[in-house]
Recover the amino acids of this structure.
């Protein structure tokens, strides 16, 4: 383009410990343009926009808006420079009205007279200019999700934003609401606003953007004009080079997986408030195989994991583990010997304030092996501390958990060591059924390799492993079969060798027969065979 | 300024923090004493003497500490599981009332039961009544997510009004000349005196025993671990197979029973009957004591004796110098605040605020 860019990022780099979240990213944005940031979860999109909005301070690199350099880590300066952000998770006060929400932060604390009337007029002017109808007096609590998003956008507009960052704006919208959002975005660009549109949905990105930047592992792997890009090329860039053939498929156990399925879901459906829905999910995991569930976060994997951890019950359909129906309640699943590795290690997997020793037995407190003394003492639940310590000691030794003492609170360990501890605790009893949800999320390479090795070892001794992961490299490295979850539906599990980057990328973006009609795209190339 | 969690709390800081807290408390209260026009040093000396300085002072302090230890334990066990029982006051009265119902409402016949059995029944009834008064809010919390702070707090007033109704009605002492006072329990059921010429009774031993048992439960048993796990992270506790609601209800039973026992100990050990003013807020002071003790049962005993000593000492001090005995409440309140700040500073450090770099 000929005009000066309104926003320019140069050499932006950000590290979180060992993780390189943004690696030397440079890009620019012009007035009237929509730039799409595309990438998997953890690719660095959110970090990048947080830096340009001043939430984070970059380790290196600069952000310029309208030719002026922004001071790092100063959200007020970013706002003053005309950058507005529409968060995925709305930052609205539900008990206040629309007008009051828009006014929040606009008024100095010590001013006696309110600018209420002036802001109200500004709000109505912006609303009518872009066709964003809202009632300024309505309470936010009474608004629909789409209306709340409108308020978020208006908040930014009233502050005079000329650059709008939209963080996964369609993630919470219905298809109809998304469509009306896209029309609004067109009006924005027509009036000269510049937009950054963050998404991982290929269809939308193709629909609304002028240019596309693909991030992967914090690096810019592709920058292209939308007109020159195809969905297949984007999917491939997003997913990247996958190790082929996968080592697991190269070294299958003798005779391959065989026997009765140890995990079996038959047309399981579940819709509960607060949980992503599951729709008609069927799967079977045989002894000696790893079935991976791929997919973008929020498509029902969490609900599936909680179902298979015994925390929730399916509302429809059948769920069998080891050929049996287990009652709801984590303890029944633990007693049945199901190993469960949860996604959120400190929030779910362990009691952070308790010691390593206590955490080794936390899931087996009523197990006679953990108690000592005579009949009465056992009834009272007197714990066998020596036994528990030796159990903990065995876990930290054989799973190489770096620690100072068994008495230290487990939250003082690093994330990787907590995870090794959990994996050790769950696999110590040689379980036949393993449900691992994001087992290597946020771990360093060494810990990742270790966890993978443990899962594959369990598989070799005949365990059925269900691996839920957003990390495709992980999936391609260790899974025997892969199924993709999108919008609560699960595709059929096909051998890893039959998938490739473009195909799985499209399936994850909902571009397969498993998708709902409303979000299905037109291009169906490369998806034959991915059916339910 | 912002708070930043320390990696490890240093041992010296852990020891010094309570001492520094007490020092600051004395300093702050010294200003008030000086304001009241009394000599600061002498006032503190008299207070100390009045609380701990003689055989009489010491036995009075321990007598006063008895219900405080029990209500302190009741609060400590509940708070550890994040069951915020603000209702120990009401549970105390429920226990006291139940003790009289079993021990005194039989016109001296003892329902024809031997005294030893009646004694056991009286204590059990008191504990049961206290527990019952807490089970209801705990159940509502686990089932309907009703905030137990509100329900337990309001039940205090319900309990007190119920006591008032009973003292004017079925439990009224006909010989009390119109005073709102219940019938007395059978004299044989009263707790024995531990020392000659003192009011110290065997309820103190009940309280010490309860602290030891609770310490043992916390340290040695599965339930003890479950209670703290549910308190620190209910989500993880449930994932790890613990029955969060059941643990919560068990906690409620233990907590309510301890507060009920406090009521029985006051009736059987000190007054012999129930009056409307028999508790100068033991239930509420129990909260202060539990917090002072960092929810540890053994430290509850220490904290309760400290608070009781200040209360008793202030009474005798105020008779000598002109400082009102309300200074005791101020000292206890300020010491709680300084103690909380001190323990916060042990775990966190203050840092000048800066835009977050992470």
């Amino acid at each position: 383009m000929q005009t000066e860019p309104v926003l320019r990022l140069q050499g932006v780099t950000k590290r979180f410990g060992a993780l390189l979240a943004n690696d030397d990213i440079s890009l620019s944005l012009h007035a009237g343009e929509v730039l799409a940031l595309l990438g998997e979860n953890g690719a660095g999109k959110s970090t990048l926009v947080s830096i340009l909005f001043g939430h984070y301070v970059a380790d290196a690199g600069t952000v310029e808006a309208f030719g002026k350099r922004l001071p790092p880590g100063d959200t007020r300066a970013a706002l003053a420079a005309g950058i507005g952000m529409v968060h995925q998770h709305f930052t609205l006060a539900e008990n206040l009205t629309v007008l009051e929400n828009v006014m929040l932060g606009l008024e100095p604390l010590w001013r006696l007279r309110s600018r209420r009337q002036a802001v109200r007029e500004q709000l109505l002017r912006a609303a009518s200019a872009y066709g964003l109808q809202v009632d300024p007096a309505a309470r936010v609590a009474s608004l629909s999700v789409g209306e709340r998003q409108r308020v978020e956008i208006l908040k930014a507009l009233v502050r005079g934003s000329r650059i709008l960052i939209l963080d996964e704006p369609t993630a919470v919208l219905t298809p109809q609401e998304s469509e009306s959002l896209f029309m609004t975005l067109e009006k924005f660009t027509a009036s000269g606003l510049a937009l950054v549109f963050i998404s991982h949905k290929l269809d939308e990105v193709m629909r609304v953007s002028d240019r596309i930047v693909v991030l992967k592992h914090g690096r810019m792997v592709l920058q292209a004009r939308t007109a020159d890009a195809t969905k297949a090329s984007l999917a491939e860039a997003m997913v990247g080079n996958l190790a082929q053939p996968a080592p697991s498929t190269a070294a299958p156990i003798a005779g391959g997986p065989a026997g009765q399925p140890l995990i079996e879901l038959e047309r399981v459906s579940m819709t509960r408030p607060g949980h992503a829905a599951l729709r008609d999910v069927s799967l079977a995991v045989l002894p000696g195989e790893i079935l991976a569930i791929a997919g973008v976060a929020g498509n029902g994997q969490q609900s599936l994991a909680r179902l298979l951890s015994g925390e929730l019950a399916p509302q429809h359909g059948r769920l069998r583990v080891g050929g049996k129906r287990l009652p709801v309640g984590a303890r029944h699943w633990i007693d049945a010997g199901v190993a469960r590795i949860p996604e959120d290690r400190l929030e779910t997997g362990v009691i952070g304030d308790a010691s390593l020793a206590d955490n080794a037995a936390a899931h087996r407190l009523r197990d006679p092996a953990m108690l000592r003394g005579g009949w009465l003492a056992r009834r009272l639940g007197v714990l066998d501390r020596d036994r528990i310590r030796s159990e903990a000691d065995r876990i930290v030794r054989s799973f190489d958990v770096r620690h100072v003492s068994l008495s230290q609170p487990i939250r003082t360990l690093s994330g990787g060591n907590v995870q090794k501890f959990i994996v050790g605790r769950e696999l110590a009893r040689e379980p036949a059924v393993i449900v691992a949800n994001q087992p290597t999320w946020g771990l360093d390479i060494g810990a990742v390799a270790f966890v993978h090795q443990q899962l594959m070892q369990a598989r070799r001794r005949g365990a059925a492993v269900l691996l839920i992961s957003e990390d495709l490299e992980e999936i391609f490295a260790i899974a025997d079969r892969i199924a993709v979850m999108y919008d609560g539906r699960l595709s059929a599990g096909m051998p890893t060798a039959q998938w490739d980057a473009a195909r799985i990328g499209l399936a994850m973006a909902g571009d397969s027969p498993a998708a709902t009609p409303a979000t299905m795209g037109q291009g169906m190339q490369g998806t034959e065979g991915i059916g339910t | 300024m912002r708070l930043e969690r320390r990696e490890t709390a240093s041992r010296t800081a852990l020891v010094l923090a309570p001492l520094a807290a007490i020092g600051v408390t004395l300093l702050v209260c010294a200003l008030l004493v000086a304001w009241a026009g009394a000599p600061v040093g002498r006032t503190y000396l008299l207070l100390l003497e009045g609380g701990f300085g003689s055989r009489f002072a010491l036995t009075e302090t321990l007598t006063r500490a008895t219900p405080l230890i029990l209500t302190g334990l009741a609060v400590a066990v509940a708070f550890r599981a994040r069951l915020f029982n603000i209702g120990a006051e009401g549970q105390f009265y429920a226990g006291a009332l139940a003790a009289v119902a079993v021990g005194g409402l039989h016109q001296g016949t003892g329902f024809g039961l031997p005294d030893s059995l009646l004694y056991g029944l009286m204590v059990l009834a008191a504990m049961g009544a206290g527990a019952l008064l807490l089970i209801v809010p705990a159940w509502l919390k686990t089932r309907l997510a009703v905030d137990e702070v509100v329900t337990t707090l309001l039940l205090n007033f319900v309990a007190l009004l119920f006591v008032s109704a009973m003292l004017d009605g079925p439990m009224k002492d006909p010989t009390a000349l119109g005073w709102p006072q219940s019938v007395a329990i059978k004299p044989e059921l009263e707790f024995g005196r531990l020392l000659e010429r003192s009011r110290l009774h065997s309820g103190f031993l009940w309280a010490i025993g309860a602290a030891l048992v609770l310490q043992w439960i916390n340290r040695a048993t599965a339930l003890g671990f479950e209670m703290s796990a549910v308190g620190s992270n209910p989500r993880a506790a449930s994932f790890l197979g613990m029955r969060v609601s059941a643990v919560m209800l068990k906690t409620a039973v233990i907590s309510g029973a301890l507060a009920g026992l406090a009521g029985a100990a006051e009736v059987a050990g000190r007054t012999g009957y129930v009056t409307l003013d028999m508790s100068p807020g033991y239930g509420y002071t129990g909260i202060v004591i539990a917090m002072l003790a960092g929810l540890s049962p053994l430290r509850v005993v220490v904290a309760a004796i400290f608070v009781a000593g200040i209360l008793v000492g202030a009474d005798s001090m105020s008779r000598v110098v002109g400082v009102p005995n309300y200074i005791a409440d101020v000292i206890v309140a300020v010491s709680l605040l300084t103690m909380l700040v001190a323990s916060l500073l042990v775990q966190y450090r203050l840092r000048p605020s800066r835009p977050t770099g992470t």
In short: Residues 17 and 345 of chain B are 8 Å apart (CA to CA). The mean pLDDT of chain B is 91. Chain B touches chain A at residues 7-8, 220-223, 225-226, 228-229, 232-233, 235-243, 355-358 (CB under 8 Å). Strands of chain B lie at 2-5, 348-351.
